[in-house]
Amino acid sequence: MKKIILSTTLVALATLSACSTTSPDVIKREDAQRMAQIQDATVLSVRTVTVDGSQSGIGAVAGGVVGGIAGSSVGGQRENAIVGVLGAVAGAVAGNAVERATTREDAVEIIVQLRNGERRSVVQAKGQENLQPGEAVILVTTGGKTRVSRAPAVTAAPMNEPAPRKY
Q1: Which end of the chain is more exposed for a tag (fewer CB within 10 A), N or C?
Q2: How many angstroms separate the CA atoms of 67 and 84, rounded?
Q3: pLDDT in tens, 42-68
Q4: Residue 144 belongs to what domain range?
């Protein structure tokens, strides 16, 4: 029984940690089909950073429940209440630590210079693009959140040619 509860708790924490990302390669459903503001910029620097994990309380609650159940099954009637409380506290601390560790994310801080000379810093999860200083990028802002992507190649717009006449 203890193994089932512990396994279920760990699966729930892993699932919750997979729900949150700052990856430039993942677009949230609510941001799809919304117009975004785009700014052209040049990369000045890129450095690796770590986005600290979250502590929503879900890990602590789940850990407390598991620890309390596990602790209450130890010893006799008097001991099982005390050990149950101690198990709940220890489980909550451990659950909080697991949640924080599983939601931690490797990221990059990208410092860019806009065309008007202003500089901006954006922190985002490491994506598939490996941006380098001097590279042309675009800043895409949707819903108050900004991501940096490599600028698409600019091609000349096709000339409007008159349609051929039909005789």
Answers
A1: C
A2: 7
A3: 999 999 888 776 666 666 676 666 666
A4: 23-51+105-151
